[in-house]
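Posting this for the archive.
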Amino acid sequence: MASSFQRTTNNGKISRLATDKSYRYSLIMDSKEFRKIFGEVAKSYGFKTAFGGCYKESSECIFVLQLQKSNFGDYYELNIKTYIQGTFGKKYVPDKDTIKKYMGNVFDRQPKEYCSLFDFDIAMSDEDRMQTLKKFFDDFVIPYEEKALSVSGVRELADEGRIFLLSTVKDELDRLYPVN
């Protein structure tokens, strides 16, 4: 029968370990596991996955979530991109470059209050990380995505100060989708 205990690792994380006679294994989620779970949670909210990212699309916009691994620690930054169809003469498709490479017409990151969710240098139980991830989708991603999938919603996000539209993007929106 396995017993369990906690230990503190070299980087200060608390790790729950289960042991039996022949082996020990860690029960704390790591960043690679989180990437997989992030995709599964996104799918449960109607996102499609491709090229290491998640996206939704409408006739007006493509909304992309892409986890970018940091070179400076064990954490991710969440790249949040919105591509507006027709801007600068382009028809966007959810391909490798759109999801992984380009910045989109609108670029954002996760709010500061959710940075610990993506930081594996900060001790957090798997249960807390999962609850926080679901809260992140419910309270931030889904309301944002619902607006970001339409030109009127993008304008609303800009008017609320939640996003910043570069002047060239704003001018292009005004040209393509004039406000009455």
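The first helix runs from residue 31 to 44. The longest strand covers residues 61-69.
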